[in-house]
Amino acid sequence: MRGFETDLLALLPRLRRFALSLSRDAADADDLCQASLERALKARAQWRPGTRLDSWMYRIMRNIWIDEGRARTRRAKVLAPEEAGEQAGYAGDAAIEAQVAMGDVARAMASLPDEQREAVALVLVEGLAYKEAAEVLDVPMGTLTSRLVRGRQALMRELGEAA
Amino acid sequence: MTIDPEMLMAYADGELDDLAAKRVERAIEADPALAEQVRQHRLLTARVAASYARVAAAPVPGHLADMLRSNVVPLPTRERRRHWATGLAMAASLAIGLVVGRGLLPASDSGFDPRISGELAQALDTQLASVQPAGAAARVGLSFRARDGRYCRSYEQAEAAGIACREDDGWTQRHWIAVPRQDTQYRQAGANGIAAAAQAMMAGEPLDAAGERAAREAGWRAE
């Protein structure tokens, strides 16, 4: 049973990354990570060994974000996109500095609608296959690819030729 | 034939089967604009992935890592205590999610001193489960004889719980769990873990009040 915690520990950097993709805010991302780990530790009996722990965790995290993130999402929408971009720098730890350094890409990602951003995050950032990403998001493949292609087109427009 | 944007993207991502990929390749040969779009897709993937790679490379905050670091701390065991490993595993599986503060973890098994001294040792020496003074340093739970004949007692403190056994030179930790004070759910899991570990160590039944008193009179000596 020890292996479960060890595997989660190894996944933690990637979980933080996905949390940041979802929440667009470093402090919210770590809160989301904590809530996801709590839920995973309580629900560990539901994880079937031999299946992908990363996909399982992404799914848990995304569900929590949807369940509990509404208030924060509303708050985020009140801010202009450039303010939201600035806000990412407020707490000054290493992860946040990394996010500031991400600059254009983070801003472009933050401007995407949630549905497109999570599809892009799972495939481009987390490296999931389309099928795995569709399972995490609980949508048909066609829905996944349509969100993904729209998200990418928006990013290309936003990032220009440099993309 | 026309290649729709989804299909071109899937080709760029290596998501198409051989047959479909061949069709896209033929279309690309006939239309340089399609080739450029594939290139753009791959550039975008590389750029986005590289940006977010920095997040994954950043140090993980200690409070998140601590949620996953060992819950039940296995204490150093001697060869003859091997059969307790089952109890440890049970305790580990039951005491799900117990958080051990980094400062409390032994630096390494070999560097950890399992001998108990001070208030806890005194409580283990003198306190009876049936008579627990208010404000005592520890609350004693079960007292029992382990399979090697030694007396062992489970105990609970404000922030920790464990099982100690009486060696010739004093009380020695056999199991130890950090128990966050406020979290009743974790406390219960910790209590369950310790109870399971005790069950696995025990020869026969736990001591009753009279047995506990007699053991105390004998100074908890194995004899």
Automatic annotation (TrEMBL), chain A:
GO MF entry, a single one: sigma factor activity
Keywords on record: Sigma factor, Transcription, Transcription regulation
Coiled-coil intervals, chain numbering: none
UniProt keyword annotation of Transcription regulation present: yes
Similarity annotation: Belongs to the sigma-70 factor family. ECF subfamily.
One Pfam entry name: Sigma70_r4_2
Keyword Nucleus assigned: no
Taxonomy of the source species: Bacteria, Pseudomonadati, Pseudomonadota, Alphaproteobacteria, Sphingomonadales
Listed CDD domains: Sigma70_r4
Record-linked InterPro entries: RNA_pol_sigma-70-like (IPR039425), RNA_pol_sigma-70_dom (IPR014284), RNA_pol_sigma70_r2 (IPR007627), RNA_pol_sigma70_r4_t2 (IPR013249), RNA_pol_sigma_r2 (IPR013325), RNA_pol_sigma_r3/r4-like (IPR013324), WH-like_DNA-bd_sf (IPR036388)
Biological-process GO terms, alphabetical: DNA-templated transcription initiation
Domain annotation RNA polymerase sigma-70 region: ranges: 10-74
Organism annotation: Sphingomonas gilva
Domain RNA polymerase sigma factor 70 region 4 type: 105-155
Name this protein carries in UniProt: Sigma-70 family RNA polymerase sigma factor
From TrEMBL, chain B:
The protein's name in its UniProt record: Anti-sigma factor
